[in-house]
Amino acid sequence: MVLSFSSNCRIEEVAASCDAIRFYQLYVFKKRAVSATLVRRAESNGFKAIVLTVDNPMLGRRERDIRNKMVAPAKPNLEGLISLENLDTTDGSQLVKYVRDTMDPSLSWKDVEWLKSITSLPILLKGILTAEDARKAVEAGVAGVIVSNHGGRQLDYAPATISVLEEVY
Ligand SMILES: Cc1cc2nc3c(=O)[nH]c(=O)nc-3n(C[C@H](O)[C@H](O)[C@H](O)COP(=O)(O)O)c2cc1C
Predict the structure, then answer these.
(1) In the chain, how many domains are there?
(2) Mean per-residue pLDDT of the chain
(3) In terms of DSSP H, where are the helices of 17-130?
(4) Where would I find the FMN hydroxy acid dehydrogenase domain in this sequence (predicted)?
């Protein structure tokens, strides 16, 4: 199983209650130390791979979330790392503000290099939609890719995952 970064259970809690082979899903934060800490916790709790989500460096324009002033559930894994307390929803979705403040929109192949330099766990890239990126991923030394369009939640007109599988394969 892949434990979502957004999980409302702590990495340690999941490890203690589940024998399954576990991968940990990561984002690259502006503060690289936050990502590095999460990786270290996943490693020391027996997670077997890091799944780096690469299709979400900026949040897609989720108009319903903005309209409804969406508030994401707490993220216990970020306690002590990033404070979400000052994110209000007065003029829109809390998620938009949270991603804008914390995640690095300049995510690039260099960050895959960086991630490789801080962990010996295999790395998978989640959010690959083209053969070109799959090839680059292999060249960058990742162990695998997850073909996904983030459930169509990121970009309008992103191709359906099923329609690009053959190309990537
Ligand atoms: C409420 C919700 C929360 C999600 N949170 C995350 C997340 O924290 N990390 C992530 O990589 N993807 C997240 N996703 C995207 C899903 O992991 C997945 O990519 C999406 O449901 C589409 O499935 P597919 O990738 O198998 O096509 C989320 C999706 C939803 C609906």
Answers:
(1) 1
(2) 93
(3) 32-44, 63-67, 94-102, 109-118
(4) 1-169
- pTM equals 0.95
ipTM above 0.85, yes or no: yes
In the numeric block, which tokens belong to residue 151?
């459930």
Within-domain flag for 84: no
Ligand 1 close to Cβ of residue 150 (< 6 A): yes
The CATH number linked to 42 is 3.20.20.70
Instruction: Tell me which of 87, 150, 152, 168 is the catalytic residue.
Output: 150
- For the chain, strand residue ranges (E) read 2-3, 23-26, 49-53, 123-128, 144-147
State which of 148, 163, 165 you would mutate to test the pocket of ligand 1, scoring each by most atoms of that ligand within 8 A of its C-beta: 148
Active site residue 65: no
In a domain? residue 75: no
Q: What is the pLDDT of residues 122-166, one digit of tens each?
A: 999 999 999 999 999 999 999 999 999 999 988 889 999 999 999
